[in-house]
Amino acid sequence: MRALVAAAAAHPDARPFLVTLDAVPPRQRMPDGLTWAPAARWLLEEM
Helix, strand, coil proportions of the chain in percent (round to 5)? Predict the structure, then answer.
């Protein structure tokens, strides 16, 4: 997540979006502005 936060700061027009193979959200608090989705939902839905 640290790398995604750093990339978001370097690219302010991009939307920080984290896709994981886990079906449950990460246990640690997500940084503000970061969006999370499980890979199955990301593949099947238009995000």
Answer: 30, 15, 50
To 5 degrees, how large is the angle CA 33–CA 34–CA 37? Answer: 140
Length of the chain equals 47
pTM of this prediction? 0.72
Q: What is the pLDDT of residue 47?
A: 61
**What is the domain count for the chain?**
1
Range of the domain at 16: 2-44
pLDDT at 5 over 80: yes
Tally the C-alpha atoms within 13 A of residue 17's C-alpha that lie toward its C-beta: 10
